[in-house]
Amino acid sequence: MTRLPDPPDLPELPDFEALHHSVKPEDFEQDPLPGWAGIATLFGAPAISAALADAGEDGWVAAGVPFDATASSRPGAAEGPRAIRQASLVFSSYLTSLGQWRMLDTRSGATFRYRAPRVADAGDLHVYPTDTIRTFQAVAAESRRLSGAAGRLLFLNGDHSATFPTFAGFRAGRLDRGAARVGFVNIDHHFDFGNWSTLHGPLYHGSNSRRISELPGMRPEDIAFVGVGDVTKYDQFRDLLDRGFHVVPGARIVRDGAAAALRRVVEELGERCDTVYVSLDIDVLDSAVATGTGHVTMGGIGTGHLLDVYEELRALPVGGLDVAEVAPRYDPSGSTAQIAARLLFEFLFRTDCEAPQLAPWTDPLPDGSPARTAPDSPREEQ
C-alpha cells in the first residue's frame, strides 16, 4: 500500500479572538471604503428627506429622476441615476486621500485645490412610468420645493425629457426667491427643439428645450445650445439664430477650444442672468467614448473637450446642474457612468482654479519667468 506524503506545514493562524478584542469600531470609522462599497448616495453624501433638504447656500442638494418613458431609440436611462451614484463612490475618498494640497492638472496645466462643499442626497423624486404628465407635475413641484430650500441643485435625470420639469421647478423656486432671469445651457449633440412626436406627443426627450423656451418670461438670448453636432432642419437652425438663441457647435469647440468657443455665451449669460441651469445629455460625447446611452452619437466631442466646457462654465452663476441619458445597460464596463460622476466631481469640488503658469504649458517670457498663457492659446482672444 502506497504511503501518502505528510501534509505540508501550515502557517500558524493568528489568534483572532485576541485580535478583535484589541481594537474598537472607532479605529476604522474614518477609513475610506472601496469604490464598490457603501450606501450609494452621490459621493457618499448623507441621505436626507426631499421635504427637508438643506445643504446651505454654498452646498449642493442632489436628487434623481429615474424616468425614461419617452425613449424612442434604446430605453434604459431610468437606470442612470442609480448607476451614477454607484460610480461616484469611487471618488468619495479622494478628498481624504488628496487633502488640501495644491493640485496640477497635467492635461491643461491649470492649478486648483479640491475642497468639499456640503453635499446632500435627497433620493429620487416621484415618477409614474406610464403617466408622463403626472411625472412632470410631481417632478416640477418637488424641484420647486428643493429650489426654494437649497442653495444649489444637482439632478440625476433619466431621459432628457426630465430636464423640462426639473428646470421649470428650479426656475420657479429661484423666481420665488427674487431672481429676475434664469439662464439655460443645453450641452447636447442635439437641439432637442422638436415640437411633436408621433409616439409621445409634445413631451418627449427631443422637445425639452422647446418646452423650456416656451415657459413664461424665458428669452431666447438666455438659452444656449453647446456641443451640437447632429443633422437638423436648416430652417429651424436659421430660426434659432434669427431669434437670438446662442449656438456653439461641437466642431467649433474642437477647432478653437472651449474658451474661445464659449466666450460670448459666458459673457452674455453671466451679465444678464441671476443664475444659470446647465443640462448635460451624455450623448454629446461620441459613442466610441460613451457607449452607455440610448442614442448612438457619431462625431460627438471627446471627454477632454467636455471637461474644458465645464471649466469655462465656472465663470457663470451656476445654481443648477443635471446629467441625463446615462443608460448603463449598454455599457457593461461602467465607464459612461464613471465619466458622468467624474465630471460632476470636478465641477463641484475644484476650487481656487488658476490658468497655466508652468512650462511646458506656457512659453517663458524674455526674462525667463513663466508666461500665464501660451501665445497660441485660445485664451489669448479673451
Q: How would you describe this protein?
A:
This protein has 382 residues and is an alpha/beta fold. Helix content is 30%, strand content 16%. It has helices spanning 16-21, 80-88, 94-98, 132-149, 163-176, 208-213, 234-243, 250-256, 258-272, 303-313, 335-349, and strands at residues 60-65, 102-104, 111-114, 119-124, 152-157, 182-187, 223-228, 246-249, 275-281, 318-324, 350-354. It has an 8-stranded parallel sheet, sandwiched between helices. Strands 2-3-11 form a 3-stranded antiparallel sheet. Helix 4 packs parallel to helix 5 (163-176). 43% of the residues are buried.
Order of strands across the main sheet: 4-1-5-10-9-6-7-8
- Counting helices, strands and paired strands, the structural category is alpha/beta
- Biggest sheet details: 8 strands, parallel
Our count of helices gives: 11
Helix coverage percent of residues?
25-40%
Shape: globular
Number of strands: 11
Radius of gyration: 24 Å
- Distance from first to last alpha carbon: 91 Å
Q: What's the average pLDDT?
A: 90
Portion in beta strands: 15-25%
Task: List segments where confidence is low: pLDDT < 50 over at least 5 consecutive residues.
Answer: 372-382
Q: What is the string of SSEs from the N terminus onward?
A: HEHHEEEHEHEHEHEHHEHEHE
